[in-house]
Amino acid sequence: MPHSHACTDPKHHVDDAHAFIDAVEAACRARGLRLTPVRARVLGLVAEAGKPVKAYDLLEQLRVGNTTDAEGAGAAAPPTVYRALDFLLANGFIHKLESVNAFVACHHPSTAQHSVPFLICDRCHSAVELEDRQVVAALDERARALGFVPQAQTLEVHGLCARCSQK
């Protein structure tokens, strides 16, 4: 049986969204970044979701969750959510799953932005950040061998997770 890495558990950070936010706050302090209350709230909603979450779902949760927030969460508009998501993406705290246009928490919030393959279940909609640097390196190496200069890499594999494939 292959060795299981903690990061292959789809609920790796979701089980403790507060600890994840604490890790991101520490990373922000170390990098001189500002995690505003709205950014922290969006990050928390992504971490708490337990599966990929869409921007408009986050917007709705922000609007419902706090209608009097002086920081603007209650009056959240799409640009507010997208600016928060852009910050979180740019700094490697979340990943965007392009094929489903949704966001998930990154398993390594203390590292810079990085590419990782994802396994996405088409039935339960879970997404697993696959910890396999060899896959990322092989794609990069093959692209460069063809004279292509990669700037970003997105690899998303759709199918059924172990639990759903047994149903």
Give a written overview of the molecule.
By secondary structure, the protein is α+β, with helices and mostly antiparallel strands. The chain has a single domain (6-165), classed as Arc Repressor Mutant, subunit A (Orthogonal Bundle). The chain is 41% helix and 13% strand. It is built from six helices and five strands. It has helices at residues 17-31, 37-49, 55-65, 78-90, 133-145, 162-165; strands at residues 94-97, 102-105, 117-121, 127-129, 155-159. The strands form two sheets. The protein has a three-stranded mixed beta sheet with strand order 4-3-5, with no helix packed on it. Strand 1 and strand 2 (102-105) form a beta hairpin. Helix 2 crosses helix 4 (78-90). The longest helix is centred in the first third of the chain and has 15 residues, at 17-31. The radius of gyration is 17 Å and the shape is globular. The two termini are 21 Å apart. Residues 1-14 and 67-73 have low confidence and may be disordered.
